[in-house]
Every structure is written in C-alpha cells, then in structure tokens.
Amino acid sequence: MRVGFIGVGAITAAMVTGLKGSALADWPIVLSPRNVDVARGLAASLPGVTVAASNQAVADGSDVLVLAVRPQVAAEVLSGLRVRPDQTVISLIAATAAADIACWTGAREVCRAIPLPFVAERSDVTPVFPPLPVAMELFGALGIALPVRDQASFDLYGALSALMETYFGLLGGLSDWSVQHGLPEGEARAYLAGLFLNLSRVAATSPLSFEALRAAHSTEGGLNEQVHRDFVLNGGPEALARALDRVLLRITAA
Ligand SMILES: NC(=O)c1ccc[n+]([C@@H]2O[C@H](COP(=O)([O-])OP(=O)(O)OC[C@H]3O[C@@H](n4cnc5c(N)ncnc54)[C@H](OP(=O)(O)O)[C@@H]3O)[C@@H](O)[C@H]2O)c1
User: Fold this and answer.
1) What domains are there in the chain, each with its CATH number?
2) pTM for this prediction
C-alpha cells in the first residue's frame, strides 16, 4: 500500500517516523514538496520515503492519501486536487467535515482521524471515523486505532485531544509553585513526572472507575481529600467543563 501525505509538518513527520519503525515499514511513502527541508530530511533519513513534485503527484502516486494541512488553507489546497475513486482519503485536518473534503477532492471514501505526536513512538490512541479498514490498519501500526461510531463521538475526542497544553500548563504551574517554595526545578520535575506517570498507568490498567480510584487515593480527613475539596470549591471541574464546552462548540460549528 502506497501512502501519500499532503502537508509535511509536525504531525506528518511524527507519523512517517512511526510508520517506518512499524510493521508497515515496507509501505512506500510519498510526501508533498512544500516545507521542503522537513520533507527532504525525512526522505534522506528513512528508507522508502520520497518527495513528489506536486500535491497532485502525491495523490496520483498513492493508494491512501493523508491530508495534513492546517484548516485555514484546506479549501484552497484541496480544491482542484483530483483523487481516484479507489483511493482512501484520511483527513487529519481539525474542524473540517469529511463531506467538505469529499466535495473539494471528489474522493468517495473519506475518513477522519486525530493522531497525536505519540504516533512517532507508536504509542498513540487514535480515534478514526468512520473506521475504514485501511485507516484502522495504519493507526493500529502506530499504537491503538480507536474505531469511532458516530460524528458526535468523534467531535468529543477532538475536544479531549485539546487538553495537551493544559496538561503541561498544570505541570508547569505545579513546578513553579514548588520552585517558589524552595525545591530545585529538576527535583520538582522528576517528582511530578513520576507521580503523574504512575497515576496514568493506574488509570490505564485499573478495572476501577475514576470515581472509585479517586476514593482509593484519598484518606478521610487527609491531604489528598483537602486539595481535591479546595479544587472543587474553587470551581476547577466547572472551569474545565466550560473550556471543553467552548472547544466542542468551535469543532461542531465548523
Ligand atoms: N500537530 C498535531 O498534534 C495534530 C494532531 C491532530 C491533527 N492535526 C491536524 O493536522 C494538520 C497539520 O497539523 P501540523 O501540526 O502538522 O501543522 P504544521 O506543522 O503547520 O504543518 C502543516 C504543513 O502544511 C504545509 N502546507 C501549507 N500549504 C500547503 C500546500 N499548498 N501544499 C502542501 N502543503 C502545504 C505547511 O507548509 P508551510 O510551513 O510552508 O506553510 C506545513 O508544513 C492540521 O489540520 C491539524 O489540525 C495536528
């Protein structure tokens, strides 16, 4: 299966890197020419990766076409691109409907996916809607391909995927607080990274609900209970829900 990428930025670089270390490493990859330094760098360092002369040449030379340009330029870049009826198109473009992609390109089979940078290490959990077989195979090679049953669910995953900056912002805030109170930054970072790594491992592997895990990691009258109560009293959960509501609105309005 030949995989073409139109748009060679951060997420394409991560996917190409991941694919070339995966069970699908022998699938040839063809890249669009813009952002030529990144495209040529990938082609020079990884086997079976080439750079095409134009976006149309990428479409013509691939069986699966991955679209990874920014939403702001999607209509301009994709209008006029000719896609064969037998080609599967996988759009990574945020807040852009599959129907629009089909309309711009003439593609018959379009699905959407939300890969995150963890595809480079093949540890991503990637929502795919609709879960077309070739897309499931591709993202399965990059970690776990999550089949999504409807558009509304896919939009919810889109909103949840917008939490990455908030996560690092939270860690940054906790680290800053620790440093202000006298901990060396490196020690605060090592402690916080280990704490959250262990919590994420428990969240990923435990059969308990999050509510049960919360209770299991708290003692009545203890320190964890106190911090969580303060977080709730200060509107922390509502602030997060409001932020997700707003980003979901942006996704569904597009
Ligand atoms: N990064 C993520 O974690 C992530 C996750 C899921 C989905 N996405 C989605 O994936 C898409 C790409 O994201 P990204 O972070 O990889 O963005 P990015 O780093 O900005 O990459 C986009 C690339 O598209 C190129 N481009 C612009 N016009 C083009 C054209 N006419 N023909 C071919 N290529 C063109 C840009 O080149 P120039 O630099 O020369 O403009 C740039 O290299 C976005 O729609 C985003 O919503 C990203």
Assistant:
1) 3-149 (3.40.50.720), 162-253 (1.10.3730.10)
2) 0.93
